[in-house]
Amino acid sequence: MFVGAAALAGAGFVGADANAQSRAEQVAGRTGSSPSDPGPENKALLGANPSANNPPFTDHGNPGPIWFSFDLAPKRMQGGGWTHQVTQRELPPSKDLAGVNMRLTAGSFRELHWHTADEWAIMLTGKARISVMQPDGKMFIDDVAAGDLWYFPAGFPHSIQGLEGDGCEFLLVFDEGNFSEDDTFLLSEFLAHTSPEILRKNMGWSRQVFDQLPPTELYIFEAPLPGPLDDDKRFLGANLETKNNYVFRMAGMAPTAKTAGGETRVVDSTNFPIALNIAAAMVTLKPGALREMHWHPNVSEWQYWIRGNGRMTVITTGAKARTMDFNANDVGFVPSMAGHSIENTGTEDLVFLEMFKTSRYQDISLNQWIARMPDKMAEAHLKLAASIIRRAPQDKHDVLPV
């Protein structure tokens, strides 16, 4: 599977000679026995991503990998949960963002820690209690449920604890492409690798107390369920942070844009002020609907596919184009400013996240751009009559209906 995935994600599927073929020759090459493959095939992989191995005739050249899957990433398993990641190591063009998928059982902690990157997160299932301490000594603490977001700035110490029921699963996104979840700063390691003499001077703890501390990292570990949230807030008292909100209820917000084909919800620093370095859009496409042809003028796009099936085409400079199929738990990548579109090819709603290393979400609609061109300008470039050109949507629609 790994070999097949690497080939699908990274290889060019149209040779130099084929690139010079006429459009009629390219279409003819996809009929009859020409596309047959009598040799060995990984049918499971091909079934999940048929467009990678047999692309549409409009694909051309090799724009680089735009797909990977969390289901190809090994899990770090521990008592209390697991974690795995898709970073620049797995998806080399993604230099801006990396993703971590994590599971915590009820009561279990992701150990108190901090790291060099900002952390944006969405709760996928279940509930958790999160905490984060600011440099001024005030601590924010809250409970989050499915569809809620949180944001922790780099260097701010924080924790995540699964709550009652089946615990939780969430996606973390970091604003460093080569981020590694294995390279975070941990409370346990800070204490375990500081001498007993320093701890005595710093905390007043004896050597006997030092010997009771965890001798190595905890990372993910089981613990009793916490008490009521209000009790924790009362404990903090004047040290409870109430001005800055590190949580955003994305599932409860009104759609930013909505059509018969679906909707988008955009969250960036304009409505989630603490999220200064990462912006996001949650996109829902009805069966057959299209995330319109567009591009982002300021930054590359990192995607997480949550539910359903879809197909994305990405076109970059030099006439390089790639079409790939995506499924739940896959990661997509679009280079900065590259034109792209996404179609729901399944029978249920398609839901995916668009993530950006920026404070403000921006995109440009191809339909809207063409609509703003004077007739003669549009006719000269498209080689079509203005009457035909104006049949296209004349404004921006994030999601186009069937």
Could you describe the 3D structure shown?
With 402 residues, the chain is α+β, with helices and mostly antiparallel strands. 19% of the residues lie in helices and 34% in strands. It contains twelve helices and 25 strands. Strands 2, 3, 4, 5, 6, 7, 8, 9, 10, 11, 12 and 13 form a twelve-stranded antiparallel beta sheet that branches. It is elongated and about 85 Å long. Residues 1-19 have low confidence and may be disordered.
List segments where confidence is low: pLDDT < 50 over at least 5 consecutive residues. 1-19
What is the SS-derived class?
Answer: alpha+beta
Tally of alpha and pi helices = 12
Mean pLDDT: 94
Task: Report the strand count.
Answer: 25
Estimated radius of gyration: 24 Å
Give the % helix. 10-25%
Largest sheet properties: 12 strands, antiparallel
Strand proportion, as a percent range, falls in: 25-35%
Summarize the structure.
The protein is of the alpha+beta class. The chain has 12 helices and 25 strands.
Keywords:
alpha+beta; 12 helices; 19% helix; 34% strand; disordered N terminus
Explain the layout of strands and helices.
Blueprint: H1 2-10, H2 16-19, H3 23-28, H4 43-48, H5 50-53, E1 67-69, E2 76-78, E3 81-86, E4 98-104, E5 109-114, E6 119-133, E7 139-145, E8 148-152, E9 158-162, E10 168-174, E11 185-186, H6 187-192, H7 196-203, H8 207-212, E12 220-221, H9 229-236, E13 247-249, E14 257-259, E15 262-267, E16 279-285, E17 290-295, E18 301-307, E19 309-315, E20 321-327, E21 330-334, E22 339-344, E23 350-356, E24 364-365, H10 366-372, H11 375-382, H12 386-389, E25 399-400
